[in-house]
Amino acid sequence: MSLKPITPDDAPSSPSPMRPPRASARHVDATYPLWFHLPGGIIFLVLFLVPTVLSFYFAFTRWTLFKATFIGFDNFALFFAEPGLIGSLKNTLVYGFLTSGLKVVLGMLLAVVLSSPIIARGYLRSVTFFPVLVSTVGVGLTFQVLLDPFHGMVNQVLSGITGRDGPGWLTDPNIALLSVVAIDVWKGIGLATLIYIAGIAAIPAEYFEAARVDGANSWQVFRRIILPLSFPATSTVIILSLIGGLRSFDLIWTTTQGGPGFASDVIASVIYKQYQAGFYGLSTAGNVILFIVVTVIVYPLSRWLNSKETVL
Amino acid sequence: MNAMRRSSRWLIGSAGIAFTTVFFLVPFAFIFTMAAKDVNEASMLNFSWPAHFQLLENIVAVFQAHDYMLIIAFINSSILTLASVTLLVLLGSMIAFVLDRRKSRLNPLINTLVLAGLIIPPAVVPTIWVMQSVGIFKTMGGLILIEVAFGLSFTVLTMRAFIASIPREIDEAAIVDGAGPLRLFFQVIFPLLRSVVVTIVVVQSISVFNDFQNPLYFLPGDANATVQLTLFNFQSQYNTSYNLLFTNILVITIPMLVMYILFQRQIVAGMTSGAVKG
Could you say which of B9, B156, B235 has the minimum Cβ distance to residue A119? Predict the structure, then answer.
């Protein structure tokens, strides 16, 4: 038996007369101090918010990091006049919408299959998710080898089947961007599938029961129940993959470096190239353009998707 | 009817196994076999079982290359991941806690900023300029803070949703017992956040450990290389040594695979948090 000195923590939990048990406004202030926002907020402010705001000034300058000369819209004029630069804007849109659309369709399809009672379900779910864990650089370099026009496995299999040489997936300017899109979908499909599986699992079982009683076939179950009721998952996949796709840099840089020529350049890779070349003002103008592209597309879209969700 | 259903289960399952094997397992098997080949065999880029299985030799070679650069890089990446994820969990949960519990006039502003942090692509050169002015450009500390700044929004959003499910009566009981705000948060609330903390730790660790773009911009230089950048250096140095390139890919992927096996459930919970609206 040991005797402990009575400290305030050991005091019985009856309300003391000094502290009213009901929280008053002042009490709430003291309990949830606003300075809790400060440590994280300062880091966010200094390293994210301030640079973002500054970019709207530096984009209008010729800039050496030490000296910035205001040159008006010259950087933007150059960006929109140069075919290599303006092409990156188109590629960014193609890349963003294609990856997002493919992930929605294929992710949904895979999730429906992986939600039904089939054999080896856990194994199949794990295998489709593996690529999410590998770094983008690792995936990019692996596919660079797999898609090698002469010795790569993909073309060896293709020419074995068709008897003709396969295309230069990453070296043909007409299909290089599409090849990178395909690799991106390969890497990201596991996440989309996972989100859909969670969305489908959240649909109340009564709907499926009712459909069974009414004698609905599997297509009707998919069309009338799964498709509309997994809408929150769809909107999450669309928004997440659009944000990721429009900003994508790692994969393009490790597979094609924007080439051949400028065929697969996106805004994010232009930003890096201009930064490397020392054109800091132009690079920042690219950043501002990317900011506008992403915000103009994603913000209204997410509001619209949210409003549809609440209707459901 | 029952037999038909059972046979369709087998049919779809087998089709799924065939499909995922070709599309997902073969590339992984390719990485593995390449990593175990010798230089000459690997340079043919074939998908075949290695004639001389020398995975261990390759692993040793990869670690020794470039003056043990991969070991330095593993240390760098571990420090980066550990420090930034710790800060993210700590600072993110503090923000999420007060944001959820206190109706302040600041809340709409903070919510907007959280959203902005999720959507807006960081402005690269202005960030470098700011880091230079503060004196943290090309420092590990600077890169850690960058990862915190860029990962904070996701952390706050995920944590806030979880904290909202913790009843306020717990707070009130602690206050009545005489706990101040720090005691309340760190001794009462924080231990209750265990499951969401694990989720954040796992998801953010994968994203920071696999990050390529931010180290490339904000911490250049061989001495500071993180594991993803060693991959790039290897590619140029071993232009023809594909076996070592793939050994390197294999070696730096293993920590993430281990994490997945250990925390599968939390990864799923974290990555799907937006899909189910409560």
Answer: B9
